[in-house]
Task: structure prediction
Amino acid sequence: MSAAPPRGAADGREIPADDPRVQLDEALGVFEPVPPYPPRTEREAEFYTLGDGEMFINMGPQHPSTHGVLRIVLKIDGENVVDLDPVLGYLHRGVEKLCENADYHHSIAYLDPLEYISSLFCEWPGVMAFEKLLDVTPPPRAEYLRVLSSELNRILSHSMFIGWMALDLGGLTPILYGLIERDEIAEMLAALTGQRLLFNYFRIGGVNGDLNHEFLSRLGDWMSRATTQIEANTMLLNENEIFVRRMRGLGTMDQATALRMCMTGPNIRATGIPLDFRRAHPYSVFPELDFDIPTRDEGDCLARYLVRIDEIKQSLRIIDQCLHQMPDGPIMAKLPRLLRPRPGRAYAAVEGPRGQYAAYVISDGTDQPFRMRIHDPSFIHLQSVGTLMPGHLIADAMAVMASLDPIMGGVDK
Amino acid sequence: MDPALKRRLASRFGERLIAPIHQRHDETEIRIGPGDVPDVCRTLHDEAEFAFRVLADLAGVDTGTSMQVVYHLWSETSADWLRVVADGLSRDDPRVPSVTFLWKGAEWMEREAYDMFGITFEGNRDLRRIYMPPDYQSFPLRKDFFLADDAARSPGAGVRHMEQVHTPRNARPAATIRKAPA
Amino acid sequence: MARSWSRLTLAGKILFTVIPILFVLTVGLVLLIVIAGKPIVDFLAANIWLVRFVVAATAILLMSVPTAFLIIYMEMKVIALMNLRIGPDRVGPFGSLLSVVHGLKVLMKEDFSPTGADRLVFTLAPVAVFMATIMALLVIPFAPGLFGADMNIGLLYLFAVSGLTVVGLLMAGWSSFNKYSLLGGLRSAAQVISYEIPLTLSVVGLLLLAGTMSLNQIVLLQGPHLVNGVATGGWFTDWFVFRQPLGALIFFIAATAEANRTPFDLTEADSEIVAGFATEYSGMRFGFFFFAEYVNVFVVSGLIVTLFFGGWNAPFPWPWPVSVGFDPGSLGIGLLLLIAIVPVVGTLILAAPFFLARSSLPAWQAIVIGFVLFNLLAIVAIAGWAFISFDWVAGLLWFLGKSYVFVFTFVWMRGTLPRVRIDQLMGFAWKWLLPASLLNLFVTALAIVVVHPK
Result:
């Protein structure tokens, strides 16, 4: 260290040798995930004091199994997990602040990478809130296109969920079957929207592109074998003794706890509460569509897994009806070139594959949002890991987290 | 638009509302002072005529003149979203009682509001930063947030030339901050 | 001298170093043979068991690495095909040389040990695991007459040695100075120890039936043997799996757990604890663990085949040896002409269709194709002749074929099944497999007493 020339700062300041930022190359010793400052809250104090025989294990931001960059500090007693503390922020991009400095139209592209697997559901509440502020109604064909594309996105997301669930339990094959499904739907949506992952398809007042021949031929081709394909993909797991035995009775949540933890989506429907915002607070053309809300009563990981498989089947029904009932007409409403929303507030929520996605937009009359609040279901559900885990083993930590289906892009915004 | 809900809210909370009940599209909005938050939320949660048992969202807002905490609630008894705005928090030391006694899931949402705005939720057992590193000094979503100031102190700024902040040293925050309409 | 040395290129330097050394070694060897040759040969002839042991150990060490390469490639390719992927594709035909390249790669990686790790134990742990696995190959009979050592306590030796892997795993887990490794090491130690008991107990029933612990004898009992002076049997119904079905099943499951294979592969559960005990290992040390695991798979498959599926016996009685009735020596000078002419003629005959069918093919390419095809045919013909003439060739091929069927089964299970949890795993071993193996033992003993009271 002393032999190296002093490194200069951007404006010529010298950095002293004992600056803590410089001493990065020394050996670290044992890495204990205890923070180097005194505990800030009582929960932190309670967590970071070790009982007898307990130790900390850090499932760091790089880990083959956390669903993105997530750091979890586990307090374990042998193999039992006593407590856990998720540390977030590794993927925080400041989307809400970015949207305040951007146009209303540009904000839609900022909303896509939140939950990148189901990006149409991230755009939708933002677009709906903007439409409320502008008092614009999208034409019915645009609404049907939104429902059609988003239900395809839901099936894509659930297929990937089945894959991740099995991968976290050790099965190497189902994720590749899920990727086959995802690839077919991604190609379809690429024909419709031009993108495979971050679709950027919804616009204020409608959607960006109409149905075309390639999309319809791929869709028809896939729909004709979708049911059997999904049956085949899930058959490997549903009837597998090891898989079922590991998931049954794990991470059981009862209805009161689910409501207290503000859960939404398949996680709460697996406990028996039929809360689905497509029926509870209908938006778009869902009042005209006929579908069921699958629920299960057990509230464990297996129930959460099976509810999502049932939802895939319901989504197929919805897509079928959309194709048959789609009216002709324009796909975008007439908007002025320069948007002048009324000063005020609007809240819009949709039911996505993970739960309720919502946006609360405050407008001050200019063409930039004053406040763009994004509500994301994965953020809420990740809190529940702490309530569901204690008493189970380390191996179950991954299973429980996978069954809650978080996407770190949404958790960290 | 749910006029029945408006009547029920006015009759139950009339004197506590600091602004008229505002309804637009499918949202009903009430404004209360920060001290009333636990009572109002408990009433809305427990009583059968309201039964707002689902907390859909908890957000902090910096209006430029004051701070707000906005709760969105849902119930089977009404077709509207209910927005409860706890208005009038000071921008220097915003404090609001926490609703984690009703909804444990609000804990992280309050942590996020603290992290982004500096709003202290009294009664939240775990009020620490959630997105920003633990030694971050400022609150990013505030309207008077000045990035270069904080980033230069942040350990994220490295010692090598490429990792440092290159904002000119005489850069200053904006003269006026953006204010929300009433 | 120094100046001319410094003017050489690297290749020249190597050449001028190696050749003198080789010369000196050759001269030394010749002198040794001339002076002390006869006493050495006499000593070795008197202690033929020593020679045999050294040759067997060398052969096993040398053969274990290609076996591991082959099984690694099989696993990558077969699991890929089950996952509807392609798998290794580029290196060699159908990617078959990929594991060889991987082996070379791990040799070239940086060799480090983590700060704070116990360096001696850290270095010795892979050696311990690898040696424990290789030592087990010493007693497995590959073919009649083709085994390392025919101990009359062969089975006991085998179980004793495979228990030594626990020591190596614990050494690795503890010395890595890493909590994940510690967890992985302890988990694997618990797993291996728990499953050793059903493993050994399931074979005791077999021991009662066979009456010997020598693996060679067990295989001979499953083949054609003399009954009252008449050679009978040799059909697959003699195999012990039909007389000890429960024992075979328990052995298979316990062996899967011993070999740390899915569904019992928590020690390397990479979705939970990164790489378990091997988290801090890289380069050739990790390569040792890796190879040891796959050689263990082969050992375990070989054991299942030896104990329950007839070892090197064919499923049907085979009249060994079949003499082709052809004595090459009788041809005299004709043999030399045959060896000179047949390859050339065969190459031309096999090249002709390719040359005639595709006019764009240059003549030399057609000849190369013909040569390769002729070689393949010659290999097949010679192998076939060896197969029917030598019982040890046939036995080896039957043994390897059956073992690889079981290796394929292990790979198949890895591609299909998820992992069990540690408490389910322990519960299964202690509450289900152990009572089942005891039941098997009692029923077998009862059957022997009832049917053959002696």
About this structure: The longest strand of chain C covers residues 225-227. Chain C has a mean pLDDT of 85.
